[in-house]
Amino acid sequence: MLRVNRTVVLLLLIACSSVFLLFQLYYYRKYVNKVSLTVKKFLALAQRYRLPLFLADTAALKLLSQDALRQRDRLVREPHCSFLCTGRPITSFALHANLWKYDPGFLLAAEQKGFQLLTLTGKDPRLASLDTLSGEEIPLHFLLRLHDYIIQVVFLYERSGNYMWFGALRLRADTDRSFAPFRQLDYGRHAGALDRQELVLTVLDGLDVRVPQNVSRFLYELRHARFLECRYHDARNFLQLYPEDSSPQSLDFRRKVKTLLHRVAQILTKLDIPFWLSSGTCLGWFRQCSVISYSRDVDIGIFIVDFRSDIIAAFRDAGLSLKHKFGKVEDSLELSFLSEDVKLDIFFFYEDGDIVWNGGTQAKSGRKFKYVFPRFSLCWAELLELKVRVPCETLDYVTANYGATWNIPVRSWDWKSSPSNVRENGVWPPSEWAELIQVY
Amino acid sequence: METWTPNPRAKPFIPRQQRSLYLTWKYHNFYCFMCAGAVLFLLITVVVNIKVIMDTRRVANEDEAAQDYDALPNMETPRRPANGRKVLDIEVYSSRSKVYVAVDGTTVLEDDMREQGRGIHVIVLNQATGHVMAKRIFDTYSPHEDEAMILFLNMVTRGRVLIFTIKDEGTFHLKDAAKNLLKTLGSQVSLNLSWRDMWTLVVKKGGQVYGEKHAKSPALSTWGDPVLLKTEVQLTASEEAECHWADTELNRRRKLFCSKVEGYGSICSCKDPAPIEFNPDPLINNNVFSVPVAVIAGNRPNYLYRMLRSLLSAHGVNPQMVTVFIDGYYEEPMDVVELFGLKGVQHTPISIKNARVSQHYKASLTATFNLHPVSFSSFCQLQMLLICFSCSFLSQTVHLLDEDDSLYCISAWNDQGYEHTAEDPALLYRVESMPGLGWVLKKSLYKDELEPKWPTPEKLWDWDMWMRMPEQRKGRECIIPDVSRSYHFGIIGLNMNGYFHEVYFKKHKFNTVPNVPLKSVDSLKKDAYEAEIQNLLKEAEVLDHTRNPCEDSFLPDSEGKTYVMFIKMETETDTSTWTELAKCLHVWDLDVRGNHRGLWRLFRKRNHVLVVAVPISPYSVKKPAAVTPIHLEPPPKEEGAAVEQL
After folding, report:
1. Chain A interface, mutation test: which of B35, B42, B79, B370, most A Cβ atoms within 10 Å?
2. CATH number for the domain including B323?
3. Residue B367 shares a structural domain with residue B428
């Protein structure tokens, strides 16, 4: 009897677990189907309303990027849903807003198809300027939910600095917080800036989707996409106290700075070296959304890890003449170029524990200085119709450099004593002066 | 088998000795297989389940985490329920020096300015919400104003609440037709209204009279006593106040618009309303489809309405590229913009007078290029009604801006293109002056040159005068058509009066033929144009300079010929001969406009006439030695009618 019991028990167990397993398998298939069905439904709808969409989902695109594709063969995945089923309940698409005439019919149709909708709007950043303009809010994100699966449509707006902008996702107090796992969304924590993407049409899991041509480039850009809008409101207040100088000389200076900055951006982008606005140029952006007309030079920063020896040649080829070169790659490197009569200072920044510093050298005495900043990350910003980087923690950066009174213009500035973060850093040994202090 | 963790409830497996070896082996194997299978299944199930649990928990956690996701404070202002109260208290006051209207204690009209606001004030209220939908003054002391009032009252939808009140005098030119209309509306006294009477009336159009008060003027030299009318108006249900249009996106916009404002005629008609979406035939090879259009507007919603309607019905215009910039925070112009589903932007006014206009232009230009990062932009002043918005014209010429650096703009307006002086819709000119009405501008020109040095708010300059200054224009020229593509309908701009419009704009010729193919557009490039002028001068017949140029017989009765005449102009500022000539030709004579290197081109009696200024024009060399340039002096005494500059 015992034997029979045991057999029965075992058989029962096996039967139960098989049923359970089959059930789960069925469920999994349904999940897979659910994802592809939801996405399919959405894409059909998008096609009908001619939404200029492309797949912008980080997880899905990661599966598509070169490295992942190489490993693909070894990975056994569900054949029906190998790209879109990323295990997250979200797929994100980007929409080129300038190419789409906002059609509320799309949302109505989506609702009829069973999607639940959440439209998130925000202020139009293209109207943000020193003038006070106000227009209607523009759509920034659509969230469509079907069977607890979320499709995020992020609107990309073309901005005058030749880049695409997307807005931060901010919920209103009356919005349903459980609508979507907001934390998991790829887009929305911050506003961002991306370059215009070349797109290719491809077939993923049986669906026609457009994807960025260079997927890994796109994913890289997305990781560093955070964008800061200039603080126009504060800038207006500042300019009311200290009106902009509109003399022909300063107009001329501003024009030259614009040309120079555009050229610098072009050179350094080609070399793939990230740079940011530093010192006076950064202050100009932060304080007045423009250029400080009496500053007479342009300052940019580059991390020393990004230094490449062909920088100087690249600048020379673009018609900028080297004015001086101080320090060495290991210590206090600083380059200055001249374009027309505007000086471009390139400061190289050294990371050291929880601080970042750059060096300064006095040519005639060989004295060294050190300018210390708290650590910062880099964000995009727009200045003079150019997309440039600035430290994300701009206030800390500017305050470190100019003290708490950065909001008051100082016309007589001594780079050796005026900055509040300057420290004496010894003297270069006279034997090395010829090498380390080059003035042209 | 070693890896098998025994089930505590299952009995340990002990092979029986009694069985035959074969059977034992068989059972043994069978059991192992069964047990292993069962345990494997169990293990997989457990793992899968744990994963499912973990996943759900993670999602739940994230949901919780999402709770503290940055939230905006609730921007929605709490709105008082519109139907909270069903009755409106209305107070209307009429007197010689002051009128006011209060609805539920809120003053919706108050006018006690001296020398202003004379006539009949009319207010239209929404019968369901009590909102003010329109406010008008008809100065019925002056002629024709009563006709405008009739027109307006007829446009108001039935059922609206109308409030009338007279300030100072409102009957001198109030003709019988208007009085009869007031009578049919329900007025008891309208037929007896006379000189300097005071009068108020609150009535529902096509319905009951809520109250009327009248004070007769005792004598010609005195006014009637002030009257104050207090009355109550019963609000109706909102369904009754609305039309039953088909439920479409367009009609939703229409419904919103019609519940807010009045006086736009058939747009709000319940049966057969005027269209608000236009689908003009697309233009073939449309080069301007992606050119952003900025419409510059003030607080003139009716004109804005007319302007947008004609703009949108133009061939080749792309509504998505149209942005309306409103100088100030006015509701009604914004309603009009939303009615058409366009993008409207409001601008906080900076500075005063001309500087305000100029700052508004700057902000609008900047914003247009920000909104549409492309290389051209076209601008329309609200001062003009764009007929066929010259899309076809612009589409054919816009590439020139890129190809020819000596160009400043392309304009759809010819300052000298009057009925009697413009002929050929396919002909284009180059001119040194910049006609301000409806023009296309290159982004680089604005961003790199104009924007940085745009006159600052404290400079009370006209933006268009500033743009015409040599420092800005730098010798560049604009392309204009012979026959203007836009029609100025005047009395609207901030700085123009009715007389001015009558004299200078009424007889202007504008193109009514759509999609005219333009004559050899590329010949407008600098060098090609010079060659063309030389050819024209070569073939041109010199007119008889001994005759009076102001007389009709100055030109022979021919057709389609080219003539040339020479006028005296010693320096840039020596404009007297041209001004006198312009006066007798009845073209623009307030300043020198429309010339190209001292040469004007226009049509007289269907002949092309070239006017060359001698000696400042380089074309003076073509003057035969025997010809003496015409010299005209202004009449000794000028009439004092100084007209404001445009």
Report:
1. B370
2. 3.90.550.10
3. yes
Q: Does B74 touch chain A (CB under 8 A)?
A: yes
How far apart are the CA of B3 and the nearest CA of chain A, in angstroms?
18
Q: What residue numbers bound the domain in which B212 lies? A: 87-240
Chain A touched by B373 (CB under 8 Å): yes
Within an 8 Å CB–CB cutoff, is residue B453 touching chain A? yes
CA B307 – CA B300 distance, rounded (Å): 11
Q: Using alpha carbons only, how large is chain A's radius of gyration in Å? A: 28
Of B69, B372, B373, the CB nearest to A162: B373
**B478 plus B381 within the same structural domain:** yes
Q: Quick: pLDDT tens for B184-211.
A: 999 999 888 888 999 999 999 988 899 9
Indicate the number of domains in chain B: 3
Q: What is this model's ipTM?
A: 0.77
What mean pLDDT comes out for the span A289-310? Answer: 89
**For chain A, how many helices (H) and strands (E)?**
11, 22
User: How many C-beta atoms surround the C-beta of residue A139 within 10 A?
Assistant: 18
The domain made up of A232-439 has a fold known as: Beta Polymerase; domain 2 (3.30.460)
CA B3 remoteness from chain centre = 82
Retrieve residue B150's tokens. Answer: 């009739």
Summarize pLDDT for B377-435 with one digit per residue, the tens: 555 443 333 333 455 677 778 778 878 888 888 887 788 888 788 888 888 889 888 77
Between B438 and B397, residue with greater pLDDT: B397
* CB atoms A183 and B48 under 8 Å: no
- Give the Cα separation of B33 and B28 in Å (integer): 8
Same structural domain, B441 and B493: yes
Q: Enumerate long-range contacts of B78-86, CB under 8 Å, 24 or more apart.
A: B82/B128, B82/B129, B82/B130, B82/B238, B83/B235, B83/B238, B85/B235, B86/B234, B86/B235
Of A126, A133, A183, the CB nearest to B346: A133
Query: Two tokens at A228?
Result: 């800061």
**Residues B471 and B328 both lie in one domain:** yes
Give a yes or no: residue B269 inside a domain. Answer: no
A232-439 has the same fold as A32-72+79-224: yes
- A160 vs B contacts (CB less than 8 Å): 369-370, 373
The domain made up of A32-72+79-224 has a fold known as Beta Polymerase; domain 2 (3.30.460)
Is the Cβ pair A170, B73 closer than 8 Å?
A: no
Q: Where are the domains of chain A?
A: 32-72+79-224, 232-439
What's the pLDDT score for residue A4? 63
- State the nearest Cα–Cα gap between A19 and chain B, in angstroms: 10
Q: What is the pLDDT of residue B52?
A: 62
What pLDDT score does B503 carry?
Answer: 59
Could you give the CA distance from residue B391 to residue B412 in angstroms, rounded to a whole number? 9
CA distance, residue A39 to nearest chain B CA (Å): 20
- Name the phi and psi angles at B178, rounded to 5: -70, -40
Interface test with B, best of A106, A121, A182 (most B CBs within 10 A): A182
Sequence-ordered strand ranges (E) for A238-354: 276-277, 297-303, 321-328, 331-339, 342-352
**pTM of this structure:** 0.74
SS3 assignment, position B319? helix
Of B371, B450, B459, B461, which to mutate for an interface test with A (greatest number of A Cβ within 10 Å)? B371
Q: Say which residues have a Cβ less than 8 Å from residue A370's Cβ, sequence separation at least 6.
A: A332, A357, A358, A359, A360, A422, A423, A424, A425
For residue A272, the distance in angstroms to the closest alpha carbon of chain B comes to 25
Dump pLDDT digits (tens) for B491-503.
Answer: 333 344 445 555 5
Share of chain B above pLDDT 90, in %: 8
Q: A10: which chain B residues are within 8 Å (Cβ-Cβ)?
A: 10, 31, 34-35, 38
Residues B465 and B587 placed together within one structural domain of the fold: no
pLDDT in tens, B299-311: 778 778 877 887 7
